[in-house]
Amino acid sequence: MLFQTAGIEVAFWLPPLVAFVISFFTSMGGVSGAFLLLPFQISFLGYTNPSVSATNQLFNIIAIPSGVYRYWREGRMVWPLTWMVVAGIIVFTATKYVIDFCGR
Question: Following DSSP, what letter does each residue of 46-79 receive, concatenated?
Fold first, then answer.
């Protein structure tokens, strides 16, 4: 299989196999496997383009909402922790905005 844009040639079965193995293990913990896909793409495929980060972001955008839905549906969502994480993200983002854009 040839990925022309990246200039990478790889066996057609390797990317789906790696994705399946990573997803198998990370889904048990309820986390996204993007943090394991990045080393695979860089080390094994030799793809060092900055678009590796965009690929992992796309993976997270697809994987995380489905994991959250599953936890919510099964009643395993730890809401106090969830709200603390959301609050932390909002505070950090607002602080970063103020420092970067209003502090100039």
Answer: ---STHHHHHHHHHHHHHHHHHHHHHHHHT---H
> How crowded is residue 7: how many other Cβ atoms within 10 Å of its Cβ?
10
Percent of the chain exceeding pLDDT 90 equals 19
- Average pLDDT of each block of 10 consecutive residues along the chain (104 residues)? 81 87 79 81 82 82 82 91 93 90 74
Tell me the domain boundaries of the chain: 2-77
| Burial bucket for residue 34 (CB in 10 Å: 0-12, 13-18, 19+) | buried
Which two three-digit tokens encode residue 93?
């983002």
> Is the CB of residue 33 less than 8 Å from the CB of residue 22?
yes
8: enclosing H helix or E strand: strand 8-9
**What is the model's pTM?**
0.55
